[in-house]
Amino acid sequence: MGKKSLLILTVLVLCLAFLINEGESATYYLDVVNGNDSNSGTESQPWKTVAYALGITSPVGPGDTVYLRGGTYREQVRVDKSGTENNWITVKNYPGESPVMDGSSALTGWTQATENDPYLTVVIGENIYSHTNYSNIYWTRVEATRFPTGLDGTVLFENLEHCRIASDPNQSEGYGEDPSEFREVHEDCYGQDAYLYDEALTQENGYWEKKSGYWDEPIVRVMVYNANSSIRRSKVDTYEKLTNYGKITFAVALGYNLSVGGTLKDCYRLINHPHVLDSAGEFYVSGIETIDGTDYRRIYLWPKYRTNLTENIRMIGGISYAFYNLSIQDPSQYPVSYLAIEGIRVFGYSGHSFHFHAASSKRGNDLIIKGCEITGGADFGIYTINYDRVRIENNYIRRCAGRGALVAGGDRCVIKGNDSQENGSTNLSFYNVTNSMMIGNKVGGQRTAHGNGTSCYGVGNMMENLLVANNVYYACNSSFQNVKNVTLFANLYYVDDVHGTSCINNWPRADGMIGYEGYFVYLHNTVYDCRTSGGEPYDAVNANSPHSDFAPQGEEEGPVATWYMYNNIYHGFSGWRDGDWANGTPRTRVYRGQNIYTWYQWDQRPSYGWSLGTGEAECFIHNVSGYKNADYELGDIFVNPVYGAGDWTPKEGGPANRTGRDVQQLLHDLGIIEKFPEYDFTKDLAGNPWNSNPSIGCYEYGAVSLKGDLNKDGKVNIQDVQCCVNHILGKQNWGSAADVNGDGKVDQNDIKEIINIILGGK
Description:
Pectate Lyase C-like, 4 domains, 13-stranded parallel β-sheet, mainly beta
């Protein structure tokens, strides 16, 4: 046989093998109500559990699809199945149905509290002090092993809504922390970490002094500025009634001295004590009681509706993960690869809802989590470590007690199109990743003292080659540390005087050795209204930006960081300077132009040698003391600058209208376009093309908004439906954009119109 014939035969054999392999792919079905794991897995004979389908013994293999029918799957799934590069395994919702993975469990057996309930009553001598609202409170016993080590981590739901742990002061929500609702630390407590004074604790009846079943030391949670504005916790050891206030001594010192802090002062709240169980929707967890050798705790709940006690009170505990692979802990388990999980609702797990952790020496790769709804978890929503080419895409993530999603130790990872808000910590995070993107996400509203909208942190390593683009930040920030070669492109940050925050934070190296290196590219970003309620601005770009505060040990000159800053609108302190020196040697270079400033940092004034760059404009809308009076209003820059309902496209004839610089050549010269071929740098935040002389900010002048895109994030989706509903209810005002069908009024017909657009009908 000749070489040509042999080559043809080889190609035919490979093609035949490929076709056979493709033909072997199968489709399997799960039905939690009517299924059985001993069935064949066909649509007429479905399996029952996801754990079986993705377990070792099932026939699912590369190229197969597993459909979950609607229903609630109360299970934890160890994933032991991997696909191949050309034949992924896909686990997804059956078309038109909504399967739910639920890690919570129902609490039943509720008993109405009595006037002399031992856990709600204090007996001092001959005096009996009953709980004022005992008739509204119900209790049930739960095995002590089901509670987290810190009782403040107990998560309870009433009709799928978070209950609030008993607190003083009260918190408005049942998840996360809101320090604006804490009580400020008394100034007499500054400089130490062992106690605090509380002016509210002046009870005459000994509630706090009495160590009994009622006492079960409450927990104090303190936001400490010196601890990077994080929450420190301790049990209360003793309470001493002083003349003007009570003195609380911590069982364990906080480890950081209390202080006046920064913008957010040190503050605290007391939780988990029956004395502060004072409103509907709150609960309290008692101390241990032992019955027949088994330890229990009681949960005391003031339900919003007593009818929910029959079946609608649920608790997190006992089921850690919805989907997981922990090959780092189990040498017999291999990391999952080439797996896609799509369209599944995940609710109420005590750990990370999605948890994939591989060893650095035996990495995972190619994992997709897409179109899922992840809510109500006691920790992270999505957590991956040492997985390359991870895609976290188009997920709805809400009210997880930890981060919304964390991708750590990966290469070429993508976090794209997610709506992650109201979580207990940072919404979306990259740790130690390279060549990766955060694009097209909507983040905001985290319930924490120290949390970010997005964070990109090198932990023990320098991260590099990152793109953060087309994201919308609601009252939160993007944060960076130990990074280089970073591009921020066409992001919208907006806050108001209630939700003030710095928007772009660049922190120095944590190890104190070197500052910045590589390039930092800020192009076409809009930072809107960084002010406090007193009119003072927060930083649009944090004052640490491009500083190299620490010189390398034993060296006179460290790495040089180069900053490119063009076409940005900064309403708030701009926060950078043009040079930084260590041991007399310049270590940063800043190239800037075509930026708009509405307020200067103190040393950006002419008296400090700073001046505007090419095409830059000062559009001050407030008086800067001793320097300049107001010249502009925001309405001179934007079409309709209103928080939550505005239009940030440049106003005709305004300072941002087609006054920018064409940055495409710069992006080519730095190799950024080639590094991120998936992202289109020729489009603005709404997907409209930049003009050859582009506008300043994240939107092009004259950009045509998508019909139905009320929140102007460049797409029409379920969030726009919610915006329209809120407009009808009077909770928000989206102006004429809410009249989607153009009939002159906003009603249910506009909601239908948006849904038709989403479904592709119009």
